[in-house]
């Protein structure tokens, strides 16, 4: 399994990586993107099995990135890991094709609840 982690914070990408391991997902191939534009490019070039994306990033936000992927026919499973989790954002994410929205702070258990059906 290959997972693309997109967040403009290197520290947050490392925290997501560590949380994936704490949740028991070992042996994953992890690739990273620093913004939404890189996310779209790497999602198309490297064909990950799952994208975990921040919402707020430079160059292209996470919601803009998923909309660009879906518009180009890329249906890679996509979830948000973001600092905001209002119902409006969850509804917007779902309407764009996201499978879930995990709000920070999160735990390994939260990751398992959302990812087991995809990575299980």
Automatic annotation (TrEMBL):
4-aspartylphosphate found at: 54
Domain Response regulatory: residue ranges: 2-119
Keywords annotated in UniProt: Phosphoprotein
Entries under InterPro entries matching the protein: CheY-like_superfamily, Sig_transdc_resp-reg_receiver, ST_Response_Regulator
Pfam families: Response_reg
Matches recorded under PANTHER family: TWO-COMPONENT RESPONSE REGULATOR (PTHR43228), TWO-COMPONENT RESPONSE REGULATOR ARR22 (PTHR43228:SF1)
Record's protein name: Chemotaxis response regulator CheY
Lineage of source species: Bacteria, Bacillati, Actinomycetota, Actinomycetes, Cryptosporangiales
């Amino acid at each position: 399994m290959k997972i693309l982690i997109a967040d403009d914070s290197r520290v947050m990408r490392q925290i997501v990586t560590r949380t994936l391991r704490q949740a028991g997902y070992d042996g994953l191939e992890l690739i990273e993107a620093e913004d939404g534009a890189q996310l779209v490019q790497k999602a198309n070039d490297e064909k990950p099995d799952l994208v975990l994306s921040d919402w707020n990033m430079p160059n292209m936000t996470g919601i803009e990135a998923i909309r660009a992927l879906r518009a180009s026919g890329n249906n890679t499973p996509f979830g948000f890991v973001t600092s905001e989790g209002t119902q409006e954002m969850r509804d917007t994410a779902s309407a764009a094709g996201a499978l879930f929205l995990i709000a920070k702070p999160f735990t390994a258990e939260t990751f398992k609840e959302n990812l087991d059906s995809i990575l299980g």
